[in-house]
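Reminder: ligand-aware prediction takes two inputs, not one.
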Amino acid sequence: MKVLLIDDGGLFGKVLRDILITKDLEVVNITQKKDAMKILDEKPDEIGVVILDGGISLNDHIGLINHVKNSDRTEYIPIIFIDSYNEVVNIEEFLNIGVYDYLKKPFDNGIFYLKVKNAIKYYENFKKLKDAKNKIEKMNLNLRENYRRADELNRRLEEKNKILGFLVDARTEELERMTTSLISALENANLYNDENTGKHIIRVSLYAELISEKAGFDKLFSKKIKMYAPLHDIGKVGISDNILKKPGRYTEEEFEEMKKHVTIGYNMIKDSPLPKLAKEIILYHHEKWDGTGYTNGLKGEEIPLAARIVAIADVFDALTTKRTYKEAFSLMKALKILEDGRGKHFDPFLLDIFFDNIDSVLEIREENKDE
Ligand SMILES: [Fe+2]
Ligand SMILES: [Fe+2]
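Here is what comes back for the chain with fe (ii) ion:
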């Protein structure tokens, strides 16, 4: 950085300039206040120290000091004032308005050089600190901007998620409506062919949901059981009325024919988008825990859970209601038959759940009686 030396163009100024030049400093020597101001205005970054030598008027000195101090770009450039006014100048006042250092004539050349050199060093360090501070401020600013943008993005994301949530809910609702109407269409087909009333389907559905919920299975599973249990006998549309509506017991042949409702039902929906659970209920609701059921002779936990649940619900309802081939059994007799089927026909764990919640079972039964 350069030394801006302002003096009256006399011999003393030359001496000062030579002292600095012969060492290692670059000097810009100015004799007019306005020229000095021009340099300070146009190339402030080149100047590392300003030396004011007496000779120009005291007012010019003060004017220059104020000019340096009043600009953001020069206010910290150190000013060294060389006092040649003797008693006229109040040094304290000069230091007060921001002069960095002063020298009184006569002075030692070496000390003069060191004072100038130190002032430049001081200013260079000051500028480094200032640059670092600016960088930190800029980083903070960027950081704040990034935080602001992240907040904005989060807000937008939340809004988007909200909209997506609405769409998903609407879609799910629509899908459920479609599924429900499909199921009720299938149920209606079933009603024409079965001796059962629609209430059988509703009760089986509610018993099955109750068992699933009380067994602690998740809500979605219980909801699906409730939704698809009504489909368990849809295959009966494929069984002739002679068999379906036959009073009294089936012959072995007739029973074999009746058993087909399971596979007929399964074939009806196997290629549909209905969930696996619905297909399992239809295909396996006549399997028995000990493997003696139909159609696949599955045993224990080989039988899908939903089918094991529906089996209990379906048999309980068949026992406690009137059919063309039998009167309704008393509750005690029906419960005894279920209990006898523990580990044979029914999953013992699920049967326990059913008995533990018999009060709720009976409430469902009462609320959904056949007309
Ligand atoms: Fe069935
Ligand atoms: Fe049934």
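The chain has a mean pLDDT of 90. The pocket of fe (ii) ion (ligand 2) is lined by residues 200, 204, 232-233, 314 (CB under 6 Å). We will return to this case in the review session.
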